[in-house]
Amino acid sequence: MASFLAHITVMPHDALLDPQGKAVEKGLHHLGLDTLHNVRVGKHIRLQVQADSEEEANSLVTKACQELLHNKVMEHFHFRLEPLK
Q1: 3-state secondary structure 14-30
Q2: What strands lie across the sheet with 43-51, from one edge to the other?
Q3: Helix/strand/coil (H, E, C) string of 37-62?
Q4: Which CATH number characterizes residue 28's domain?
Q5: Of 22, 16, 24, 27, which is closest to residue 70 (Cα–Cα)?
Q6: Cα(57)–Cα(49) distance, integer angstroms
Q7: How far is the C-alpha of 55 from the C-alpha of 67, rounded, in Å?
Q8: What average pLDDT does the structure give for the chain?
Q9: In whole angstroms, how large is the CA radius of gyration of the chain?
Q10: What's phi and psi for 13, nearest 5 deg?
Q11: What is the distance between the alpha carbons of residues 32 and 23, in angstroms, rounded to a whole number?
């Protein structure tokens, strides 16, 4: 059995308002960082997966994301797998 490290990014859909991102952007502007715009705030999740193959690990992480880690109405996700030695 192989071990993989999954790096998962969950972000709000681009079409939806991101109140947390707007608050961060406003804070940046108050700091004089007026050239920073379109801030979006999401989540980074890292987890270890044990699977017989990279394909199986990919399937397990996809299922975890679809069923628990993201809200499909409001968010999208992507991830990458890194083999652990």
Answers
A1: CCCCCHHHHHHHHHHHH
A2: 43-51, 2-12, 75-84
A3: CCCCCCEEEEEEEEECCHHHHHHHHH
A4: 3.30.1280.10
A5: 16
A6: 6
A7: 18
A8: 97
A9: 16
A10: -60, 145
A11: 15
d(CA 5, CA 84): 6
Domain range for 55:
2-84
Burial class (CB in 10 A: 0-12, 13-18, 19+), 6: buried
Q: What is the mean pLDDT of residues 70-75?
A: 96
Which tokens belong to 43?
Answer: 């989540």
pLDDT in tens, 22-42: 999 999 999 999 999 999 999
Pairing of strands 43-51, 2-12: antiparallel
Total structural domains within the chain: 1
For residues 40-58, average pLDDT: 98
Alpha carbons 16 and 62: distance in angstroms, whole number = 23
Tell me: pLDDT of 85 over 90. no
